[in-house]
Known about the structure:
Elements: E1 3-9, H1 13-22, E2 31-37, E3 43-49, H2 52-58, E4 69-75, E5 90-91, E6 97-105, H3 108-116, H4 128-140, H5 147-157, E7 160-168, E8 175-180, E9 185-189, E10 192-196, E11 208-211, E12 216-220, E13 225-229, E14 234-235, E15 240-241, H6 246-250, H7 257-263, H8 265-273, E16 277-278, E17 281-282, H9 291-296, E18 299-304, H10 307-323, E19 327-331, H11 332-335, E20 346-352, H12 358-369, E21 373-378, H13 384-388, E22 391-394, H14 407-427, H15 434-453, H16 456-465, E23 471-476, H17 479-495, E24 498-503, E25 520-525, H18 531-542, E26 547-553, E27 565-569, H19 577-595
Parallel strand pairs: 18-19, 18-20, 20-21, 21-22, 23-24, 23-25, 25-26, 26-27
Antiparallel strand pairs: 1-4, 1-10, 2-3, 2-4, 5-6, 6-7, 7-8, 8-12, 9-10, 9-11, 11-15, 12-13, 13-14, 16-17
Helix pairs in contact: 3-4, 4-5, 8-14, 8-15, 10-14, 10-17, 14-15, 15-19, 16-19, 17-19
Amino acid sequence: MCGIVGFTGAAQAAPILLDGLAKLEYRGYDSAGLAVQNAVGKIEVVKAKGRLKVLHEMTDGGNAVPGSCGIGHTRWATHGEPSVVNAHPHYSRDQKIAVVHNGIIENYLEIKERLANRGYKFVSQTDTEVVAQLLDFYYTGESAGDALDAIARMMLHVRGSYALGILFADQPGTLYAVRKDSPLIVGRCENGSIIASDVPALLKYTRTVYYIDNLEIARLTPDSISFFNVDKEPVEHETTTIEWDAEAAEKGGYEHFMMKEIHEQPAAVRDTISPRLKDGKIDLSELALDEEAIRNVRRVYIIGCGSAYHVGMAARYVFESLARLPVEVDVASEFRYRDPVLEQDSLALVISQSGETADTLAALRLCKERGVRTIGIVNVVGSSIAREADATMYTWAGPEISVATTKAYSTQLAACYLLATEFARVRGTLAEGQYENLIAEMEALPDKIEKILADKERIQWFASKYANAKDAFFIGRGLDYAVALEGSLKFKEISYIHSEAFAAGEMKHGPISLVENGTLVVGILTQPDLFEKSVSNMVEVKSRGAFLMGLTTYGNYSIEDTAGFTVYVPKTDPHFATSLAVIPLQLLAYYVSCAKGLDVDKPRNLAKSVTVE
């Protein structure tokens, strides 16, 4: 989730770019850079690793980079480690084109190979440099066209999501903005035209903006903005007036970062899954794990803390059911101290959003010492776990600001689904046609999450009734128990209400003694073969005075005979139901916290990244 700003007009561009990028710092980043057209027909690029203030100092607040047309960028690494070389903007080979990019180019390796065969050299590890070089090919190559033609042809050959800011050295004062599945906004201001990936960067300069639609191109000059579709046909756009204040704008108009990040989950899950699906198959080449190595795996260890541990609990069911592999799941803080017996020919999946979780990192090192192959599932490129694991699977969730994780959890689940499904294919444990069906169900998850979010007001209403609850229990069987663990953690984290999760069949073995009149019990029932048993467990607690909230899939309407309030989620393959069931539980926790007037994004006593043991 990078930040993009661009300007062309009657003022010096670099100070405006730096100011706009500063308004996007909340999104998180590891490097920053500027590209400005200068007076002698060249594009000058300045980049720095680390905080924006480093770039600010290097350029004397932008004054050392003269020119009135430029683009700026803050980078959150997805391809290639955080470094000056990998920072944006990226040049074409002759430095006549400069590009900044937000998103993921799914087929960049394929394009890179084709261009390399034509003599193109690449200096970075990024997918973005491929865009700059491909533009150069269409702009200056054998069948060269004008800038608009080159951009349109590039769009037809690139797969993935992108928001792009583009400069051509031989087009002074002209800036291009391009969008597919990644936000980009343009506007006219007092002394020129401006683009940004998010509203806060624009508010100081204009509140009247245009939202670029998918597969559209905007051409900006100091005096005008023109829009074109991918066929280079002119497109008309209506302006939108932004009413938000700066603080609200950082949160995309949502009251809290947590709600913004809940709504970013469809895109984050899609960004984690889609680049790893090629020609109808799962591509795990990033892990350097060939089919023979997969077949030789005898046991899987999954290690994490907090929500990452809950991902592991869900992944265990999926791996064992699909790939028929035994799986052990451990809390990282316990794993290293129990002196575990680690088998050869085993694999450890080490899960951490930040890649810096101290206990998880220590567990990774223990596995490596004992000769166990390790795969890190992390969100932060270049983090300690990413560097030290034998291979890394990035989740590409983008920065997560709220302490209570939402989209990082969902993308970690998606990564585990990909691994389990591909392991199952290689090991020959799937029925005919099941592999294709599983992939189709994975691809459908983002749209189904969107459908759940569209019905969030019902959960808000229910949350307002139970904001003063003293206790809450979340129960489920199988995969539903795994999501109960996460739902309970979210609830206690941000509502400060005592909450526990139990395997539903265990209630009668002790926990049911805590149930009294009015106790809130959330029963999760997404697994068809366990539905009736779970209902019977809910009846048991209801007879002791509990108020029941049911969470199940559409069609299971008989639950309304037992539960006082029911939330329905779309049907999916039962192995992937956790990804849908968790969304209403995130919303429940959020709305209860709001009803109590608590600090949703920064709950007491908690930190986003736990880097001490």
